[in-house]
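wait is this the right file?? whatever heres the structure
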């Protein structure tokens, strides 16, 4: 017997799922214990519609996380990490990531289920980040001996801190400049620490 192939959703069903996921992000960011009924109400759909699309709350949250990680991956690829000069790509990707992570803080702030599509997406994003940092090192933006996995972890931490301290109206491009500048130059004095020379 052949494998069942999932049919693509009709346009109206796709809109319904998108509305449910967007509402789930808003509601769960405000109250992580919110029920499916609360999410349905916020999405403007019947509770049965949510239950028809998602077997249970866990399935909805996993779909939400998968969707957000997919958008994060698109944000990385939009920066053209393979072809754009590394400094430009790093800035563009950072601004894109700040936008997506700011909009999907609940979904992207929770650990992905091990072995799931979201976990695989996170792994792929991490690998793309290390590739770009390798290009940056090759171009002399990073020290030749820089441990790229450590640099990636510092970069992620800087993005997290930028989001944590950001106000809703703060420009992602300005924050991206701060993140990239701090990653590449640290916070030390640019004159080598010599005063009055």
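ok assuming it is, sequence goes like this
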């Amino acid at each position: 017997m052949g494998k069942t192939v999932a049919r693509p959703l009709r346009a109206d069903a796709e809109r319904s799922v998108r509305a449910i996921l967007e509402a789930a992000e808003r509601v769960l960011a405000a109250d992580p214990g919110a029920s499916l009924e609360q999410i349905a109400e916020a999405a403007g759909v019947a509770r049965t519609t949510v239950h028809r699309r998602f077997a249970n709350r866990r399935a909805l949250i996993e779909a939400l996380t998968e969707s957000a990680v997919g958008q994060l991956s698109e944000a990385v690829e939009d920066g053209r990490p393979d072809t754009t000069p590394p400094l430009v790509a790093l800035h563009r990707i950072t601004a894109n990531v700040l936008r997506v992570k700011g909009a999907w803080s609940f979904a992207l702030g929770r650990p992905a289920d091990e072995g799931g599509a979201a976990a695989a997406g996170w792994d792929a994003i991490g690998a793309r980040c290390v590739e770009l940092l390798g290009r940056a090192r090759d171009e002399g933006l990073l020290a030749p001996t820089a441990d790229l996995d450590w640099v990636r972890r510092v970069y992620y931490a800087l993005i997290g801190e930028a989001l944590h301290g950001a106000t809703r109206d703060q420009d992602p491009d300005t924050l991206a400049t701060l993140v990239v500048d701090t990653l590449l130059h640290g916070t030390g004095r640019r004159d080598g620490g010599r005063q009055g020379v």
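The chain is about 70% helix and 0% strand. so i think its the right one actually
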